[in-house]
């Protein structure tokens, strides 16, 4: 069955083009307040457009390739932004890569995971995902974080939280190889570990009626035909089984996804002077700018993950969360390591004591969340609390 033709001139096709035009005319300029607000509105529209086109591509290529496309596309552009800002120098440049990567790990592992688990558990009673695939992803994130963000704090070849050139080269190669090994596992050898888990599959209630899982993990009869829950579930199922887009529509969405992501990062850079001024005005440390920029850049993954959780596809949310964290480390560190040959000044990658505590807590709590393969609102609340602690301590160290 062919998918119905879609009009070309929709807001999802117009907004990315408008955003690029706005970025070109505002990039590198000092903007008055009205234009800063306008750029923020266009930035929000670009995020929404990116999520839409990512979902179109994901529907065509299937999981886990769809999640991988969005995570890698965002991270590649994020890396370009980090290198550009680091090369420009200024206060906080030596720690910019560390602050941005650590913020990405905390936002994905606690923010995206926590929001997804909360939405799924509130809407469907229980958030169910594949423990094998999610556990492998978490282990990879923890190893990458330890190699690149923890070890520099304790090595002795260089003073301060800095790798020697040989150590930095080893961390870069190890990060790239480990990320490549994970992608191979996710997309080829064990792809089934990263596919959504059917909730209550094979279970049946009285007279053969299907059942749903309650928050306590018990079987409950399916919703009555015509009820609000039944309509919502049927709508999700119809969305999952809708005919995939054509090759032409997929290529168009892929191109517009890249355009949207370029616009998101470019407009975030345009907004960065206003963000820096706002951060300084309220007395926050300069490193908080990296947190705000990471929040903006990761907005497409966050929205896509929450929408997947709403459809009870929590595994897709987990793929996006941990995939983005891995891509952020596995792609950023090698590029920064290569760029350090011509970048002036030190490259401080090691975390401070407060950040180390938050990272250890995140890894421990994430392991306890992932191992059972299902989670409730309590686990979601724990992750969101850790995210709140990270943001609060970044603003008030």
Automatic annotation (TrEMBL):
The keyword Transferase does not apply. It comes from Nakamurella endophytica. Its main location: membrane. Pfam families: Na_Ca_ex. One of its GO terms (cellular component) is plasma membrane. It is found in: Membrane. Residues 35-187, 253-393 form the Sodium/calcium exchanger membrane region domain. This is Ionic transporter y4hA. PANTHER family: SODIUM-POTASSIUM/PROTON ANTIPORTER CHAA, SODIUM-POTASSIUM_PROTON ANTIPORTER CHAA. Residues 203-245 are annotated as: Disordered. It is a multi-pass membrane protein. One of its GO terms (molecular function) is sodium:proton antiporter activity. The chain crosses the membrane at residues 7-27, 33-53, 65-89, 101-122, 134-154, 166-185, 249-268, 288-308, 320-343, 349-371, 378-395. Keywords: Membrane, Transmembrane, Transmembrane helix. InterPro entries: Alkaline_pH_Ca-Antiporter, NaCa_Exmemb.
């Amino acid at each position: 069955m062919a998918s119905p033709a879609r009009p070309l001139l929709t807001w999802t096709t117009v907004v990315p083009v408008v955003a690029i035009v706005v970025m070109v005319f505002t990039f590198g300029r000092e903007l008055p307040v009205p234009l800063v607000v306008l750029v923020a509105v266009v930035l929000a529209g670009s995020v929404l457009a990116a999520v839409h086109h990512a979902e179109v591509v994901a529907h065509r290529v299937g999981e886990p390739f769809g999640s991988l496309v969005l995570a890698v596309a965002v991270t590649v552009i994020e890396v370009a932004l980090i290198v550009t800002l680091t090369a420009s120098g200024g206060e906080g440049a030596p720690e910019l890569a560390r602050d941005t990567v650590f913020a990405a790990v905390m936002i994905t592992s606690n923010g995206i995971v926590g929001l997804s688990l909360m939405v799924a558990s509130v809407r469907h009673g229980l958030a169910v995902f594949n423990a094998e695939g999610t556990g492998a992803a978490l282990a990879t994130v923890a190893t990458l974080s330890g190699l690149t963000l923890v070890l520099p704090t304790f090595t002795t070849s260089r003073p301060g939280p800095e790798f020697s050139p040989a150590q930095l080269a080893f961390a870069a190669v190890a990060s790239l190889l480990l990320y490549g090994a994970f992608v191979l596992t996710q997309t080829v050898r064990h792809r089934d570990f990263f596919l959504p888990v059917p909730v209550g599959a094979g279970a049946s209630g009285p007279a053969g009626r299907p059942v749903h899982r309650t928050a306590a993990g018990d079987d409950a009869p399916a919703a009555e035909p015509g009820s609000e829950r039944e309509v919502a579930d049927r709508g999700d199922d119809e969305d999952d089984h809708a005919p995939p887009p054509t090759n032409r529509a997929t290529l168009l969405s892929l191109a517009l996804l890249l355009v949207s992501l370029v616009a998101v990062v470019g407009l975030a850079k345009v907004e960065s002077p206003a963000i820096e001024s706002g951060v300084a005005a309220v007395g926050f440390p300069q490193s908080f700018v990296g947190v705000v920029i990471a929040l903006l850049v990761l907005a497409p993954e966050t929205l896509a993950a929450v929408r997947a959780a709403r459809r009870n596809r929590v595994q897709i949310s987990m793929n996006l969360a941990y995939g983005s964290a891995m891509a952020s480390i596995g792609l950023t560190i090698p590029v920064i390591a290569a760029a350090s040959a011509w970048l002036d000044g030190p490259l401080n990658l090691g975390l401070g004591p407060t950040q180390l505590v938050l990272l250890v807590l995140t890894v421990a709590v994430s392991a306890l969340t992932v191992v059972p393969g299902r989670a409730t609102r309590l686990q979601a609340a724990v992750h969101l609390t850790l995210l709140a602690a990270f943001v609060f301590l970044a603003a008030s160290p």
